[in-house]
């Protein structure tokens, strides 16, 4: 499935998402590598098989195998971290001082430029709604030279991909 087939699956009430998907796929704020990884990490985080397949089919070939794995790893590790750190942030107290005791070695050695992995982690954290992680990853990418416009583009990709997943979850599958 391609991104065009995914757009065709969107009903008229989701026309805005279709248009956003088209414009973001060719956005020039991020480089091709960053766009592809952000789309893939966001699709995996969306937890919709159809969206994930279409996005990986469209953008997977634009990444080296290590980068494709890193985009998926960003979704995986943030799937864990966003839950844990959202809990500690909500609860406060002793929990914020306790070591996580969760393995997170992929963050130190993601197999791609650190700033790209941080950007993909930021997009996933936005989808998962972890304020602490969003702030941490936004700080990391800004410290590594990314602009607020680039951050915004990554979050716009995450928002659009997630919105498409929501729509397709509500629509009957095609036969």
From TrEMBL:
Enzyme Commission numbers on file: 1.11.1.28
Keywords: Antioxidant, Disulfide bond, Oxidoreductase, Peroxidase, Redox-active center
Pfam family, one: CMD
Disulphide bond pairs: 130-133
Reactions catalysed according to its record: N(6)-[(R)-dihydrolipoyl]-L-lysyl-[lipoyl-carrier protein] + a hydroperoxide = N(6)-[(R)-lipoyl]-L-lysyl-[lipoyl-carrier protein] + an alcohol + H2O
UniProt xrefs under InterPro entries: AhpD, AhpD-like, AhpD_core, CMD-like
The UniProt record lists the keyword Magnesium: no
Top-rank lineage group of the source organism: Bacteria
UniProt key word Oxidoreductase: yes
Ranges where the Carboxymuconolactone decarboxylase-like domain occurs: 94-170
Top EC class of this enzyme: oxidoreductase
Catalytic residue list: 130, 133
Reported function: Antioxidant protein with alkyl hydroperoxidase activity. Required for the reduction of the AhpC active site cysteine residues and for the regeneration of the AhpC enzyme activity.
Recorded family membership: Belongs to the AhpD family.
HAMAP family (UniProt xref): AhpD
Protein name, per record: Alkyl hydroperoxide reductase AhpD
Organism: Acetobacter conturbans
Lineage start: Bacteria, Pseudomonadati, Pseudomonadota, Alphaproteobacteria, Acetobacterales
Gene: ahpD
């Amino acid at each position: 499935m391609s991104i065009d087939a995914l757009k065709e699956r969107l009903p008229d009430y989701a026309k805005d998402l279709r248009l956003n998907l088209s414009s973001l796929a060719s956005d020039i704020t991020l480089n091709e590598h960053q766009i592809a990884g952000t789309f893939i990490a966001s699709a995996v985080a969306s937890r919709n098989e159809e969206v994930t397949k279409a996005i990986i089919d469209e953008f997977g070939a634009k990444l080296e195998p290590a980068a494709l794995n890193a985009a998926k790893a960003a979704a995986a590790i943030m799937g864990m971290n966003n839950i844990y750190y959202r809990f500690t942030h909500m609860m406060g107290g002793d929990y914020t001082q306790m070591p996580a005791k969760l393995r997170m070695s992929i963050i130190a050695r993601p197999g791609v430029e650190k700033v790209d992995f941080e950007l993909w982690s930021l997009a996933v954290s936005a989808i998962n709604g972890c304020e602490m992680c969003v702030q941490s990853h936004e700080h990391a990418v800004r410290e590594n030279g990314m602009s607020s416009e680039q951050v915004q583009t990554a979050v716009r990709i995450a928002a659009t991909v997630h919105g498409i997943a929501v729509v397709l979850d509500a629509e009957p599958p095609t036969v």
